[in-house]
Amino acid sequence: MILAVGSTRGPKVEAVRRVLAQLADRANVTDGRRGAHGCGGAIEVPRALLDRVVSDGVELAEAVDAFARENDVRSRQGAWGVLSGGLFDRTRSFEIALINAFAPFYNDTSYE
C-alpha cells in the first residue's frame, strides 16, 4: 500500500555553458519502508519567460498567462501545452513522472 506521493514542479535552473531553465515534473512515492523517484519529460523554458520568473520574480502561472496571451493556462494545458505548441500537457507530464516513480512497486522483481 502506498502511503505518500509527492511532486515538484517549476523551472529548474541548470548550468550548461549558459543558464537555461527546464520545466520538469518529478514524483516521489513511498510505502513507508522504501521510496522511489520518477521524472516526466523536460522542456526548455524560453528566455523571455525565464526572465519574467527569475529576474522579475513573477509567479510561473502569471508569467505563462502573459506569455501565451491567455488566462488561467495552468487549469488547462499548463506551461507544457504552451511550450510544446499543444503536443503535450501538464497532466501527461505528471502521469509519466508517477508511472516512473511507481515502477519499483509494480515491477518489484526488477528492483530487488
Strand content: 25-35%
- Shape verdict: elongated
| Amino- and carboxy-terminal Cα gap | 18 Å
Order of helices and strands: EEEEHHHH
Give the mean pLDDT: 83
**Named CATH architecture:** Alpha-Beta Complex
CATH T-level fold name = Maf protein
Oligomer state of the chains in this structure: single chain
Return the CATH class: Alpha Beta
Helical segment tally?
Answer: 4
Give the helix/strand class.
Answer: alpha+beta
Q: What is the fold's blueprint, element by element?
A:
Blueprint lengths: L3 E5 L2 E6 L1 E13 L4 E10 L2 H8 L5 H9 L9 H6 L6 H17 L6
Antiparallel strand pairs: 1-3, 2-3, 3-4
Helix pairs in contact: 1-2
Tell me what the structure shows.
This protein has one domain: Maf protein, CATH 3.90.950.10. The chain contains four helices and four strands. It has helices at residues 47-54, 60-68, 78-83, 90-106; strands spanning 4-8, 11-16, 18-30, 35-44. The radius of gyration is 16 Å and the shape is elongated.
Summary?
The protein is an alpha+beta fold and 112 residues long. Helix content is 36%, strand content 30%.
Structural key phrases:
112 residues, alpha+beta, Maf protein, four-stranded antiparallel sheet, 30% strand, elongated
